[in-house]
Each structure stands twice: as C-alpha cells, then as structure tokens.
User: Fold this.
Amino acid sequence: MTSQSSETLAATVETSDRLDRFLALTFPDVSRARFQRLIAEGQVSVEGVCITETRHKLKAGQRVKAVIPPAVAAEPQAETIPLSVVYEDRDLVIIDKPAGLVVHPGAGNETGTLVNALIAHCGDSLSGIGGVKRPGIVHRLDKDTSGLLVIAKNDAAHQGLSEQFAAHGRDGRLERAYKTIVWGVPERNRGTVSASIARSNTNRQKMAISKSESSREAVTHYEILETLGKPPLASLLRCTLETGRTHQIRLHMAHIGHPLLGDRVYGASFKSSLSTLSEVARNAVNTLNRQALHACVLGFEHPRTGKALHFESPLPADMMQLLAAFTRSSK
Assistant:
C-alpha cells in the first residue's frame, strides 16, 4: 500500500470552549472520540504547547493545531467464524448475519468481524474495490441488526451489485425488506416516512432528522403485519427502503413516535414503557438486548448472468420469542 502523510488541522478559537468540543465542532468530519484519542496521544497543541487534557479550557484568539496520523490500514486477518451461508457461487455469497456480528473492522473492532470470517471462507477471491478493510462489502447492516447480506467475490460482481444498491430498487432490480417490532401502533396500516437524515451535531455516533445542507434524502415505507398485546402495546412492521441511509429505519420509526423495541440509541425515551408490559413481555424485551430489526428479504439481478435472485430469511429466535411473549401475555 502507498504510505500516506499526516494531516494537520488548524483553527483559531472564537469563543471559549473545552478543547475536544471545539475541535469536533470545528472539524465535523472527524469524530469527537477520535479527537479525544489524539489529545491523549499528544497530537494536539494550543499556542504551540502540547495539551493532553480533553477538558482543557480554550480562550478566544488562541491557535489550535491537531495532527491526524495516517490511518493504519492493516490487512484484516482470516478468522474461522461460523457463517450461515444462504447461497454461494463464483461471483458472490449471501450471508444470514446474526445480531452482534460487526460487518467490517474499525476502531475497537479490529477482529471478530464478518470480513475476518469472509477472508477465511473465501480466501483470495474477495473483491478489493471496497478497500483493504472492507473487501467484498457492497452494503452493511448495523452490528445488532440481523439478516441477509450479499458480498462480492470479484471486482466485476462488486461493481454490478454496487450499481444496483445505488439505485435502491428504483429501477426494479433490487428488493430489500425488513421486519421490525416497534412501540405502539402507527395510525395507518400503511405509510411512508420521508425525512432527510444527517449525522448528529451533538453525538457523532448518531444520526438525526435534519434539513441542513449536509442532510440526505431518506424515504421508508412501512405496513403493519400484526398488533401485539391487548390493548396493543407494540406492532410487527414490514419496512421497505427507497434510500439506504445509516440507521434509517430506526431513526424514521422513532421520528413518527414508534421507536424499535430494544433500541437504546433512538428509543431511550421509551424505557419507562417497559413498565406497561406484562412480566413475560418485559423479560423478553430485556433478553433481546438489541434493536428488534431483521433484514428478511433480499432480491437483485445477478451481476454476471442477469438472473433475478430472491432470498428470504425467517425471523431469528430472539425476535420470535418476543412475539411469543406478547401472545402469551395477551391470553
């Protein structure tokens, strides 16, 4: 790989603030957590003096510099991790990803990812278009979202699949559907949520509904498959996407007042709602320990043969147990 040089970011303080917050607000492309690590590593200076305290108080007029070292793009290592392979040929492989499995290596997740498992499973055949740390990855699911993923095994397949995912099904080739369990019951049996999404200004790990210049169009369609409880306290929905934004379903459902059960990021305000559930249902939600979201349908045109492929994945055991708990508590 070609070596990269360090990048230096510099800015002048306009109003007093703590160091890590000033840097994160001034340079939004770098996360606050990343700046905190850089400060601790001695890569940040104020008026030429190295500062290693994230809470350091800045004064107006001071000059701040941060050195961003080149990314360490160590090639992921093969790891023998069990995979649920739904389909495989010389061009691609379909995986039914369990909840808890991170898709590609990143900060804090250098090993034990789907990519590590794929390197062991596919060997040198994985496409390199996605970069060193995400070979073959065409799309992704959050760590705690389960369901179907397609991975390209060569560059031609990667390019063909990426083209279909970029169109998000508007040309009729790609089909994706999810099942989720949400708090409450939406007013309509079918509906559409159209609300643009951008990264949160206050927490770089979260997304937010936004009308800023950096926001991107996001459209989610949903239909109620089943209401849960008597009286209904939750619903099983089927969601389809016109766009593929980070955390889209989770954020859109929370936006209309029906966050996903188990979603600690966008459904935290519904934590008190647990008390309204029966003991059986409450225990099932706590046992779930993740957002109740599953990628149940994946269809696309094979990038080499042009054949229409369609795959379905049943709800995983933890979500089935949650549905059963609501059924038992209703009797």
Observations:
- The two ends are 62 Å apart (CA to CA).
- The domain at 7-68 is CATH 3.10.290.10 (Structural Genomics Hypothetical 15.5 Kd Protein In mrcA-pckA Intergenic Region; Chain A).
- Residues 317-330 form the longest helix (14 residues).
